[in-house]
Design a protein that fits this description.
This protein is of the alpha/beta class. The chain has helices at about 65-70, 85-100, 110-125, 145-155, 170-180, 185-205, 220-230, 245-255, 260-265, 295-305, 315-320, 325-340, 350-360, 370-385, and strands at about 5-10, 15-20, 25-30, 35-40, 40-45, 55, 60-65, 75, 100-105, 130-135, 160-165, 205-210, 235, 240, 345-350, 390. It starts with a strand and ends with a strand.
């Protein structure tokens, strides 16, 4: 993930920031940091086990924490007072490129997807272009909750979202051949992208919109620097209208529209498949596993265990170890055994849920609004700073 999410209190004050990656949860208040490893129903503080961002296990195996947390650089501010201001600026920048074109929006249901779709709809009042939104469902793995949420989006925004799904036959073939998708090998994502590419090709769209933001991860930050450097929104056929926005920008848009995915309110930091390997362990405790055939998935999880997982079956099931390559699963199991024998500080699921959901429930912080012309400069300045973390402007 990589993004530092503000933990906001009832008065709209930022207390600290929370980040996560794999089964680690990272907290920072600016002066200190705490890293917890999730162990079933609680997070266990592991700061004392970490040296130079590494945990060395008894069998000499090494867990590299920073690689799993994917720390990035975040700007904490707002980039506009009203969205109409941004729409007029983008319209002036893109009028000639967008006029009369066909634009495809790859809609996911997440906060960035909502923000980018809404911005495009408002942009149509300034520029005449055709806009289609398409959502690709991932059979077996994805929660059915998102379909109900899409109904709300369509009613609120007055747009029809075309609903497709990844090829079921290939999905079943892939389950049989590869087992459950795991970190580093999400074969399911390829099938989702394949469905979008087919629509894009058949519809002969000029541009495909993606709700990418520079603050989501360090990899995305580096990728979008060229957009900031050239102050552009379109590169080739890729249209990224909100790449400059901050997390607080998109949260504010979602909240003002009253279009907040229910999983955010339950404490999930992002919208993903119910059985996404990039989910943290605690997330499996707060959602309903509302998929079309839970029996099929449970059977596939059991079948995947036979593919080289050298850990007790009960731990594999309870910790959803199918999310990891067998080697990393074994490392995490070894770490969990060490922590069971230690009397260490812990945090509860409820605390983490409350912290992640706070920006969706409590008043948003009153922070500086960056001049639009300055945000690109600030992103470039941020690229020169070696330190990862949060930068309030």
């Amino acid at each position: 993930m990589g993004e530092y999410i503000p933990v906001v209190d009832e008065k709209g004050k930022i207390r600290e920031f929370v980040n996560l990656g794999a089964d680690f949860v990272y907290y920072s208040d600016g002066a200190s940091e705490k890293i917890f490893f999730w162990d079933l129903d609680k997070g266990v503080l592991i700061n004392d086990l970490i040296k130079d961002s590494k945990i060395i296990l008894p069998d000499a195996d090494i867990i590299v924490i920073d690689k799993l947390l994917d720390k990035t650089k975040n700007i904490i501010a707002y980039t506009f007072s009203t969205l109409d201001d941004i729409v007029k600026i983008i319209a002036k920048n893109l009028r000639e490129k967008l006029k009369g074109k066909k634009v495809l929006h790859s809609f996911s249901g997440g906060k960035d997807s909502i923000a980018s779709l809404y911005l495009l709809l408002k942009l149509q009042s300034e520029i005449s272009f055709k806009l289609d939104a398409v959502y690709v469902h991932v059979p077996y793995l994805e929660s059915l909750d998102t379909h109900r949420f899409l109904d709300d989006v369509e009613k609120r925004l007055g747009i029809e979202i075309k609903r497709l799904e990844a090829d079921r036959k290939i999905m079943l073939y892939s389950f049989k051949k590869y087992g459950m998708p795991f970190r580093g090998f999400r074969w399911c994502t390829y099938l989702k992208v394949k469905a979008i590419r087919k629509v894009k090709k058949e519809g002969r769209y000029d541009y495909e919109v993606k709700g990418d933001r520079s603050g989501e991860s360090y990899k995305r930050f580096k990728t979008l620097l060229e957009y900031a450097k050239q102050r552009m929104f379109i590169s080739g056929k890729q249209f990224k209208p909100i790449f400059f926005m901050t997390l607080l920008d998109v949260v504010r848009i979602n909240r003002e529209l009253d279009l907040v995915h229910p999983h955010y309110l339950k404490g999930c930091p992002r919208i993903a498949c119910e059985f996404c390997p990039y989910k943290n362990l605690f997330e499996f405790s707060v959602t309903d596993k509302n998929v079309e055939d839970i029996g099929f998935i449970e059977n596939m999880i059991k079948e995947t265990y036979k593919r080289g997982y050298d850990i007790p079956f009960e731990d594999y099931i309870n910790r959803h170890m199918w999310r990891f390559h067998p080697n990393l699963a074994k490392s995490f199991y070894s770490l969990s055994k060490i922590l069971r024998d230690e009397n260490l500080e812990t945090i509860s699921i409820q605390k983490v849920v409350n912290d992640f959901s706070s920006i969706w429930i409590n008043p948003l912080p009153k922070l500086k609004v960056i001049n639009f012309d300055k945000i690109f400069e600030e992103l470039m300045n941020l690229s020169k700073i070696e330190k990862f973390g949060v930068f309030e402007l």
